[in-house]
Amino acid sequence: MSSWSEQETxxxxxxxxxxxxxxxxxxxxxxxxxxxxREESLIQESASKEAYYEQKVLELQTELKQMxxxxxxxxxxxxxxxxxxxxxxxxxxVLEEMSSAKDDLGKAxxx
Length: 111
Fold this sequence. Notes:
This is Protein bicaudal D-like 2. The chain is mostly helical and 111 residues long.
């Protein structure tokens, strides 16, 4: 038969184990809750970043379209000016020929 002291020791040890188990269980629940909270926070942060970058991509696509339009307009203007420059060169050549012919006629008339 066990003595009162042994029973008390066993009871105290059992109570300590129960208390330790309770604390461990409580800590486990807290860690799990913290993990879930952190995961939720990361998911929200990720969703926020994704939305930001999607918006940034849309803005850059719009800017790219605008720049392509600017480039197309600049190329058209360049083509127009090149054509105009060619016309002017041709007119200058004609005027130079006319001036040369006029000079030749003047010299022939005097000569």
